[in-house]
Amino acid sequence: MNGPVVCALFLAIAVVATAVLVVSSQHQSRALFTELQELNRERDRLDAEWGMLRLEQGAWATHGRIERLAREKLDMVMPGGENVIVLRRGGTDND
User: Fold this and answer.
1) Secondary structure of the chain: what % helix, strand, coil (to 5)?
2) Could you report the per-residue pLDDT of 21-79, keeping only the tens digit for each?
3) Of 32, 43, 83, 93, which cross-links 79 as Cys (Cβ 3.0–4.6 Å)?
4) Per-domain residue ranges of the chain
5) Whose CA is closest to 9, among 24, 17, 19, 23?
6) SS3 call for 50
7) Closest Cα partner for 79 from 71, 88, 87?
8) What sign does the CA torsion over 85, 89, 91, 92 have?
């Protein structure tokens, strides 16, 4: 074989190999993009669920609900004025 034939054969193999690598790279790029889109959808779904859970937590922690549960389940009552002691931060006796 002479030099130009070997060179042409080498270039043909290089072109085919490059074409295969380009196709493989493009396929991997599309697969990763599809996975990215799925992960973005999952993130959006989780964000929406997180917002709903925060709203639900706020509803469960309202003062009215806690007071009602304290009265109904723990038999607690609001203390009268004679049962309330007010503590003041010390330092001066001007009050």
Assistant:
1) 75, 0, 25
2) 999 999 999 999 999 999 999 999 999 999 999 999 988 888 888 888 889 999 998 88
3) 83
4) 3-83
5) 17
6) helix
7) 71
8) negative
